[in-house]
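ok so for the tutorial part 2 we go from a plain amino acid sequence to predicted structure tokens. step 1 is just haveing the sequence, like this:
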Amino acid sequence: MSASRPEMGIFKSRMRVFNQDDVMVMTFVSNGLVATRPTEAPAG
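step 2 — the prediction. this is what the tokens look like for a chain of 44 residues:
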């Protein structure tokens, strides 16, 4: 979870791109924020 935005979660995605000769020509990492699921009250 994000410290400054507790309703949001952080994800990291890594991508590799290959050309037609199967040679890696690019890599990148992206970071994103997504809304978290609401917490449910404990049953009882």
